[in-house]
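Entry 14. Structure prediction run on the chain below.
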Amino acid sequence: MMRALIEAMVRSIEPVDRVEAEHQARVLDWIASDAGLFRVSKPATPNPHLVAYFVVVDEEAEKVLLVDHKNAGLWLPTGGHVEPDEHPRATVIREAAEELGIAAEFLLDDPLFVTVAETVGLTAGHTDVTLWFALERDCRAPLDWDDEEFHAATWFGLTEIPPERSEPNLERFLRKLAAYRAS
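Output returned:
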């Protein structure tokens, strides 16, 4: 049942560009293959496995929250692995509480973006299939971020994100989110 739900979520995403359309097609083929979707053993079994990112946005201040991830060595959106038979929205709710000490306030009910990416950092070499959600939060509100997993949690202006050291798909996600919000 969860496989069908995830497939429907992925199908409902309108690709923003050719790259996302290719990622979406790969993900749908992967889901249809009956391969395991959920990580059952760290760091990467099965490979690939499902991840849920959530980009925390303060629309009024035009800022996004990124974390300096110790393992990846990059500025990333927060998120985590989807547990076996866990709904990806439940992953976001759980990870928002664990990683930032906040309640998830969804900008959109469903994921807006899908990517397939090779991991980097200490556990490099496997593939994450990632559903991207958007959350809203006032950048002045307190956070209780996980200093075991992150060096820092920082609000960036949309033009201040360091592209050479951030998640490679982040810029495309932010363009898609801006276009969606403008429509």
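The two ends are 33 Å apart (CA to CA).
Filed with the rest of this week's runs.
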